[in-house]
Specification:
alpha/beta, 10 helices, Rossmann fold, Arc Repressor Mutant, subunit A, 220 residues, six-stranded parallel beta sheet
């Protein structure tokens, strides 16, 4: 079981980071339609967000990618260093694939476009609360379309363990974390990873993430 908070708690603490006050107001109202969530802090930039996070200790941070001073991905990495149990969702207009893949590798739990129906943000919050990923349906559809001709399908040659390793790596887990979660050695993880890349004819972690999205190993 991955880390995170549970939906059985009376109130899951959420922080909002966006430089548009009216948008924060709307998102707060949406989130608090769910009894299990409570918005405990708001910030308009990265510097303020660090202060608010340290004061309020949220369970989940919903962050815009485009922020004054530093982008949301850099802020997410900073907050996760300070609060390792914090789950992060990027809620943004930025739909660049490379940013989404970087977000996965940084351990971001969700990536939702502001142009999508509001239900997706709530689903991302639910997933993050359980330590799971939830990514933009728009992105996943476009990625699958773009990769249809160039990416392999899930081959039967992958063992059950290799599929588990593939999923965890695509979720942004480091080799040490994969080893801990699967109760195997780091050397064994590295061996599985090499075998996976060879069998799938992939070269980079970004390729592996795309493969996982296409084959629904990462929830969307």
């Amino acid at each position: 079981m991955t880390g995170g908070v549970t939906l059985n708690r009376p109130s899951i603490r959420v922080m909002l980071v966006d430089d548009h006050p009216l948008l924060r107001q709307g998102v707060k109202a949406l989130i608090e339609t769910r009894a299990c969530y409570s918005v405990v802090g708001e910030a308009s930039d990265g510097l303020e967000a660090v202060d608010v996070a340290m004061q309020t200790r949220p369970d989940i941070a919903v962050i815009d990618y485009t922020l004054p001073g530093r982008n949301g991905l850099v802020l997410a990495e900073t907050l996760k260093r300070l609060l390792p149990r914090l789950q992060v969702i990027l809620f943004t207009l930025c739909d660049r694939e490379e940013v989404i893949f970087q977000a996965l590798q940084a351990g971001v739990r969700g990536y939702i476009l502001k142009s999508e129906p509001e239900e997706h943000l709530l689903k991302a919050l639910d997933a993050a609360s359980l330590g799971r990923n939830y990514f933009s349906a728009t992105f996943c559809a476009e990625a699958a379309h773009k990769l249809a001709k160039g990416m392999p399908t899930l081959p039967s040659s992958l063992t059950r363990r290799e599929r588990e390793v593939t999923q965890l790596i695509a979720e942004g887990r480091l080799n040490k974390q994969v080893a801990h979660l699967l109760h195997i050695s780091i050397k064994t993880v590295e061996s599985h990873r090499s075998a996976i890349m060879r069998k799938l004819e992939l070269n980079t972690t970004a390729d592996l993430v795309r493969f996982a999205v296409r084959n629904q190993l990462v929830e969307a």
